[in-house]
Amino acid sequence: MRYLTVALTKGRLADKTLKTFEKIGITCEEMKDKNSRKLIFVNEELGLRFFLAKGPDVPTYVEYGAADIGIVGKDTILEEGRKLYEVLDLGFGACRMCVCGPPEAREALEGNRQIRVATKYPAIAKDYFYNKKHQTVEIIKLNGSIELAPIVGLAEVIVDIVETGSTLRENGLQVLEEVCPLSARMVVNQVSMKMEDERIRRLIENLRSVL
Ligand code: PRP
């Protein structure tokens, strides 16, 4: 039996994924050691290998078949646009992709003025403004703390993830439009889905039964 390799998104998503996997009898004790610098973990008995990667790299590993399966946020799947199958909504990590800004930016969103949009997700922002709203905007890519952009005058609005809404509230910003709901998803390499059809389907069914 060859190993099925699973790429997990480092951080909170990996912790939640491991808890969900435990419910269906898939454990990886080694992986829980926060002080370990080890990158790849093997469960010999089940023929599984797990590794941790940065979110945006998970779809890359899966598209190229370096991982058969990936667990990653829908935001990253949309942004990366890789060739893979999205097979299951795991439900956790639920949040929303939104257009946010100060209340006065609402007007700029309604008119056809060219505004600046700051975001960590340029592909999602572009698709939303160009293809759905048919509004020409200038997209500015940032790498974090996106909420700063409208406060310091870099952009009129941002496209960012809203979970509890507290980052927005504490910075005097609001949700102005909703782009799409997000959560953790299971993705599968297109060749693996055919070659390992039975094992992967069983895994999906088992996971679905505990969600
Ligand atoms: C994310 C996101 C928002 C915040 C939303 O940032 O970009 O800033 O969480 O969460 P809330 O609605 O519960 O306040 P993250 O903490 O991942 O860091 P970043 O700003 O560096 O992207």
Task: Describe it.
- This protein has 211 residues and is α/β, with parallel strands linked by helices.
- It has helices at residues 12-23, 58-63, 74-80, 105-110, 122-132, 148-152, 166-170, 190-195, 197-210, and strands spanning 4-9, 40-43, 48-53, 69-73, 85-89, 95-101, 115-119, 137-141, 157-162, 174-182, 184-188.
- A six-stranded mixed beta sheet has the order 2-3-1-4-11-5. The protein has a five-stranded mixed beta sheet with strand order 8-7-9-6-10.
- The protein starts with a strand and ends with a helix.
- It binds 1-O-pyrophosphono-5-O-phosphono-alpha-D-ribofuranose (PRP).
- Residues 120, 144-147, 160-167 line the site of 1-O-pyrophosphono-5-O-phosphono-alpha-D-ribofuranose.
Short précis:
The chain is built from nine helices and eleven strands.
Descriptive key words:
alpha/beta; 5-stranded mixed beta sheet; 9 helices; binds 1-O-pyrophosphono-5-O-phosphono-alpha-D-ribofuranose
Question: Secondary-structure blueprint of this entry?
Answer:
Layout: E1 4-9, H1 12-23, E2 40-43, E3 48-53, H2 58-63, E4 69-73, H3 74-80, E5 85-89, E6 95-101, H4 105-110, E7 115-119, H5 122-132, E8 137-141, H6 148-152, E9 157-162, H7 166-170, E10 174-182, E11 184-188, H8 190-195, H9 197-210
Parallel strand pairs: 1-3, 1-4, 7-8, 7-9
Antiparallel strand pairs: 2-3, 4-11, 5-11, 6-9, 6-10
Bound molecules: 1-O-pyrophosphono-5-O-phosphono-alpha-D-ribofuranose.
The site of 1-O-pyrophosphono-5-O-phosphono-alpha-D-ribofuranose has 13 residues, from β9 and α7.
